[in-house]
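Anyone opening a protein record will find just a pair of labelled lines. The record below illustrates this layout.
***
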Amino acid sequence: MVDVRRVKLPGVGVLHTFVTDDGGKVGVIAHRSGHSDLISFSDDTDTADVTKVSLRLNEDEAHTLAELLGGTQITESLTALDQIPGLSIDWFTVDYDDHIAGQTLGKPGDRGFVGLTVVAVVRGESANPAPSADFKVFPGDTLVVAGSPEKVAKAFTFYRTGELPTATSAISTDAPPGI
């Protein structure tokens, strides 16, 4: 089995890397936008004449390449949070045309996202942990959000479009009857 290392790249996606039997290094950057970059790279001991490859693949091309190459066993060390069922931690990079751009974060619960937390806002090289409701979000910021996968997806829709969840979708499915 090939030992594949996985590294989350905040605001970008996930980098998967492995070393080949002959010492080559291969990586795939799976971007949040859906496209992937297939790369080969070297370490400090490689000479300047080493051939390097970088290919940009759209989502269909990446899936096709994966099917052609076959499956790989991924061994990764997960943090304790990654192992909690029902918890999703994800990144949302704010674009100029996103609804949240230029807005304050507000309180997720006030917008129908009870149980969702904005863990941090990454701006440039610095993180703003546990931002307050009046924290203003700008294009290029990356929001680190934690909650159930469904709530995270709905929050991302709101951040992108301004569309709030309907009253029925804001009710937790694990709430006691009558709430």
